[in-house]
């Protein structure tokens, strides 16, 4: 028995998840009157773009070690990894330079990761469902 979740329920739950990520980042800025953590959010928002531009559709786990990947796909994965790593490390660099506090650093990193994960989960939920379902959004 397969449980089917409607696309509207998926969108509402993912928007709540995304809003909690933005809440963490905005609180890390507003509580300490320092808006440097917003740069990390910008990096996390840019992170999925290389995979969507250079990535292949329909890669399954058996293709991980095969030679079927192209150089463009590898370059997209590299850029995405670079952006995600930079988004995690940038608040640490700001903390090390004493531009933000430790709580602001942790909240900024957690919020950025939640934002990135919600973008990835959204693309994962809707990558195949737009083709397989009809135009019934509320069904």
Automatic annotation (TrEMBL):
Signal sequence range: none
Keyword Transcription part of the UniProt annotation: no
Transmembrane segments annotated in the record for this chain: 12-35, 75-94, 106-126
InterPro entries from the UniProt entry: Vps55/LEPROT
Keyword annotations of the record: Membrane, Transmembrane, Transmembrane helix
PROSITE patterns: PROKAR_LIPOPROTEIN
Coiled-coil stretches noted in the UniProt entry, renumbered to this chain: none
Membrane-topology annotation of the record: Multi-pass membrane protein
Main location (coarse class): membrane
Protein localization: Membrane
Highest taxon of the lineage: Eukaryota
Family: Belongs to the OB-RGRP/VPS55 family.
Protein name: Vacuolar protein sorting-associated protein 55
